[in-house]
Amino acid sequence: MEGRQNILLDCGVKLKSKKEEFPLLENSQIKTLDKVILSHAHMDHSGYLPALYASGYRGKVALTKPTRDLIQILLADYLKINAGFAPYDDRDINHLLKNTDLLEFNEFDSKKQIRFQPAGHILGAAITEIFEEKKVIYTGDINIRDSRLVDGAKFSDLEGETLIIESTYGGKHDSHPAAKDSANTFIESIQATLQKNGSVIIPTFATGRGQEVLFILENYMRSGKLEKVPIYIDGMVKKMLKVYRHNAIYLKDEIKRRILTSDDDPFKSPHYQLPKSKDRRDVSEGGKCIIVTTSGMLNGGPVLSYLDNMGMNKKNKLIFTGYQAEGTPGRSLLDGSRILNLDNRKIELDLEIEQARLSGHSDHRELLQVVRAVKGLQKVFIVHGEGEKLIDFKKGIEQQAQKDKKQIEVIIPKVGETFEL
Ligand SMILES: [Zn+2]
Ligand SMILES: [Zn+2]
Question: What are the residues whose beta carbon lies below 5 Å from ligand 1 (ion)?
Fold first, then answer.
């Protein structure tokens, strides 16, 4: 249609235990795209972007500078792990990186068509406002609370007819404890294991959660509430910590101040250590410690070596720090299994297993708060959620709208469905 623009919001890969899922995009659709927008660096949002260039897309990708820095490393790593199987190669990644359109928060692009607002969640994460005839707002992954490293989402001034919102914790029973309480419980649990001479393995996402966890540990050790033991940083967490440090200007004022005005740079804690041997025996045989490593849902990464070495010791503990998606090895452990079924082998486990209640996503009530704040809202599309949570959140929005005497249509789109705005 004349004047009509084809804009793609995020383009990721879904990482499951055995097979990845890619977006259902036809080559013909990819070629007619005018613009692509990336909300943040996580692979479930960014992982398929280079494939667009492999399929003939020649336009730009709008993103924030930290997001660009983060995906540069994440995509190269993905290619390395999936050598020969990835739907693109390093030329496509280069193509993408050469075609990025860097946007600062609260600044329009050259066509005055899009604007980003901070989404909390992780470094560089953005809410996208698209200024068309009817305005569309896309939350990406959103966290309205301040975390240890980034400020919460800025959503109170949003205005628009259509909202596309995530629903990871949209279920009616999804309610996060206060940040302080969840950090305290997390630390107490670690402390209990250290007291018994056990070690703690913390699988985590390389980007966002990993850094938050390190800062919690560092803080509590410094204040004396957590025993001072080595904190081993492994996998992509380490590389990403560097990107966080380079982009410190996008972090909370308090962190900036510590880096700029004092000698105690929180990124350079004396407790941080790196493993030395490939099989990580130096860590598992070196006395009690805390290990922060990828991958967060046990899909792969060094965490499996640690579980191999330390998983049968009852004194040790495994603490999940993030959402365990359906179909992942992490989820099966949380659901009670004590055997990790990997592609070519099994790992039996006898250590304690727990889930810490730390989150980079808003909960049910907070998501409703975001919906309520959007002025002039008529339509809500709920995405990025599983099963019942989508339905719970839809009901929540409808009840809230009724209370507020507002007419809001709530839609849970199916894959491949089209809507006229
Ligand atoms: Zn995310
Ligand atoms: Zn996500």
Answer: 42, 141
